[in-house]
């Protein structure tokens, strides 16, 4: 079943942002996250194993696996072939935006300024990543941007923690947040990951 980007953002309050070095970690991480109530998984294309990780995680029932750190149309195509069902980028370029729209790929482009968001709106996009959230002025900055750009909906990512997430999620223009805290660095601990996922899935919004 294909989902729109809006539907992906509604799946859970948090989209885990995953940097996975080893393919063998893919299944236990994905199973733990889905069991904990976080089905939308963003696998960043920052490691040589990323595409294989997407392929493995896509096998997990209930997982909606996306590719993060997508920088250009070539990476978008590779991610789609690997089984990614949505794409996230750190910024918005016209070639990447057009490629995602033409491919019918749910796309969450990174934005940090009014100009970024306006370019996206001009392309027909309405859902954006606000990135890097904390160092781009945090919630006060996004509130200021969201007021005039009232059509836009956001998934802030970058520096958000389990402690700060509720304040972001309380805003009507924020549909979810991206978080890396749910899968801590180091050896994979599925029990801990599932527990952290349950806490994140229970956050009000």
Question: What do you see in this structure?
Answer:
With 205 residues, this protein is an alpha/beta fold. The protein has a single domain, classed as Aldolase class I (TIM Barrel, Alpha-Beta Barrel). It is 39% helix and 16% strand. The chain has nine helices and nine strands. Helix 2 crosses helix 3 and helix 2 (26-35) runs parallel beside helix 9. The chain is globular. The model has no long low-confidence stretch (mean pLDDT 97).
Features:
205 residues, alpha/beta, TIM Barrel, 6-stranded parallel beta sheet, 3-stranded parallel beta sheet, 9 helices, globular
Q: Fraction of residues in helices? A: 25-40%
Instruction: Encode the helix/strand succession as letters.
Output: HEHEHEHEHEEHEHEHEH
Q: Give the strand tally.
A: 9
Distance between the termini: 25 Å
Briefly note the CATH topology name. Answer: TIM Barrel
Radius of gyration: 16 Å
Q: Architecture, CATH level 2?
A: Alpha-Beta Barrel
Largest sheet: 6 strands, parallel
The percent range for strand residues is: 15-25%
Major sheet strand order: 5-4-3-2-1-9
Mean pLDDT score: 97
Name the poorly predicted regions. none
Overall, the morphology is: globular
SS element count, helices = 9
Oligomer: single chain
State the CATH class: Alpha Beta
Structural class: alpha/beta
The CATH superfamily is identified as Aldolase class I
């Amino acid at each position: 079943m294909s989902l729109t980007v809006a539907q992906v953002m509604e799946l859970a309050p948090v989209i885990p942002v995953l940097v996975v070095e080893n393919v063998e970690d893919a299944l236990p991480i994905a199973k733990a996250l889905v069991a904990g109530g976080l089905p939308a998984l963003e696998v960043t294309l920052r490691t040589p194993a990323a595409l294989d990780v997407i392929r493995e995680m896509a096998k997990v029932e209930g997982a909606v696996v996306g590719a993060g750190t997508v920088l250009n149309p070539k990476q978008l195509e590779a991610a789609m072939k690997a089984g990614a069902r949505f794409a996230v980028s750190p910024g918005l370029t016209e070639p990447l935006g057009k490629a995602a729209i033409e491919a019918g790929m749910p796309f969450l482009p990174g934005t940090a300024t009014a100009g970024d968001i306006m370019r996206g709106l001009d392309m027909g996009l309405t859902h954006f990543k606000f990135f890097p959230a904390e160092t781009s002025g945090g919630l006060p900055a996004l509130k200021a941007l969201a007021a005039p750009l009232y059509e836009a909906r956001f998934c802030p990512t970058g520096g958000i923690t389990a402690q700060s997430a509720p304040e972001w999620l309380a805003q009507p223009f924020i549909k979810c947040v991206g978080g890396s805290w749910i899968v801590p660095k180091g050896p994979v601990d599925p029990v801990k990951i599932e527990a952290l996922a349950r806490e994140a899935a229970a956050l009000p919004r």
